[in-house]
Protein: tRNA (guanine(9)-N(1))-methyltransferase
Amino acid sequence: MEGEKETKQNGQNTLENQPDSQPTTLSKNAKKKLLKQQKWEAKKAEKKAQTKEQKKKEGERKRKEWEEKLSSCASEEERLKLIESRRELRKERMGKRAEEKEEKTQRLRKAKEFGLNIVIDLEFADLMTDSEIHSLVQQIIYCYAVNRRCASPGHLWLTGCSGEMENQLQRLSGFDRWIIEKESQSYIEALQDQKENLVYLTADSETALDELDLKKIYIVGGLVDRNRWKGLTMKKANEQGIQTAKLPISSYLKMSSSQVLTVNQVVEILLKFVETKDWKASFFQVIPQRKRGETDPEEPERVDREELEDEDDEGEPSEKKKQCDEVPSAQLN
Ligand SMILES: C[S@@+](CC[C@H](N)C(=O)[O-])C[C@H]1O[C@@H](n2cnc3c(N)ncnc32)[C@H](O)[C@@H]1O
Structure:
């Protein structure tokens, strides 16, 4: 592992950080991937600018409408009434929001006792480039946001949360208020009395999950590696003598590429399964269509991400969540 750590690069989109290779020119396949990623990034920037412009226009339209409404008032009394009713409406809306927020908080607190235990293992920072660490942080934000919205949230852990990973997470506004277990120790130390219940989720396992067991603790590798570190988590779990399992993807889907998913996709699938008890529905709702080989006429509707993007509290900037949702295919390992 020591030798592997030395391969950390500075966030460049080249394939030069292959574990056993010297810097080389990009292969045809890598060039294609890079081009695809660049196109995706350009499209994303364009979309972001368009959304910003639309929001600005909408704000201006509403302001104008309000001013017209005010100026059409027949008397000062009517004008004051209108202002007051708008103030009341706002107050009501804010009260409702605060109520919803409180409900979410209560659900998260309850999840500590009754929720599915999901650990994100953050011990791989040394194996990632800066941009990959950044991506992982975005995925963690997304996991937290999705969990917070769940009717039956999971009990989320961040273990091995130290060094660069911790620095990056601490920089998020509101991170200190997250209702999540933050643990600087490794899961193997922090949860040593529960070793027999630890299950490392890894696409390389021979065991496919059937059910989820609330007594177990499911570990997801906090790694964005563009498939550079093949088999790494499987090796780690085997060395530690803990159980492994993969998601039962092949029983339900024919994927167009590998079955290695991103951290946020895996966490979201687990949460969906808790809610639906249906692997197929969970896969269809979370795995992007471009990664699924075939379309299915019975495909359920995709979850409404817009709703998630509207929320802007507890250090969860909406744009960040969007970035996580649409991880470019180059990052899908
Ligand atoms: C981007 S993958 C990292 C792949 C990495 N090369 C490895 O060895 O695990 C992030 C994490 O998501 C989880 N994961 C991804 N696809 C999975 C699958 N099909 N089944 C179970 N877990 C999966 C694993 O915990 C994995 O470590």
